[in-house]
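Homework help board

Subject: predicted structure for assignment chain

Our instructor gave us this sequence and asked us to write out the predicted structure in token form, then describe one feature. I got the tokens but I'm not sure how to describe them. Can anyone check?
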Amino acid sequence: MINYEIIKASSDNVETLTNLMQFYIYDFSEFIEAHVGENGRFDDYPLNNYWTEDNHFPYLVRFNGNYAGFVLVKWIKTETISYFSIAEFFIMKKYRRSGLGKSVAKDIFRLHKGNWVVFQMEKNERAQLFWRNVIKEYTGGRFTERVEEGKRIFQEFSS
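My token output:
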């Protein structure tokens, strides 16, 4: 059994989440144009809405008492569809391949019941494999997968 907890982040956790985001952007920089500035840091990720908007849900992940990552969830509502989406999902490298990410993802799906759309970049094949496997296991194979504009892969399902 994996000893982890998912903590709903509050404005008291801004610094922690901001700092963890630097590691995430570093990992993600192989897929996007991201460079460190003169101060040696990546630009700050826009987190303000996570503290002020009801449709943004920030979570921190602890593993054996240590911070191990985060999940940012959004509730998207348009005229034709409403769904939850993983805005960002990060598990530190030292905790990957332990089952932590899969467990956290499934718990997040259980926390937010409803329709889901999970996007990945076409270049990020590891993320595609991860999400496809997690969602297939979580839904028992009841999901659809599509390609949007030939660049983004996404899965749709209900939790």
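Reply (TA_rk): Your tokens look well-formed. For the description, you could write something like this. The chain has a mean pLDDT of 91. That's the kind of observation they're looking for.
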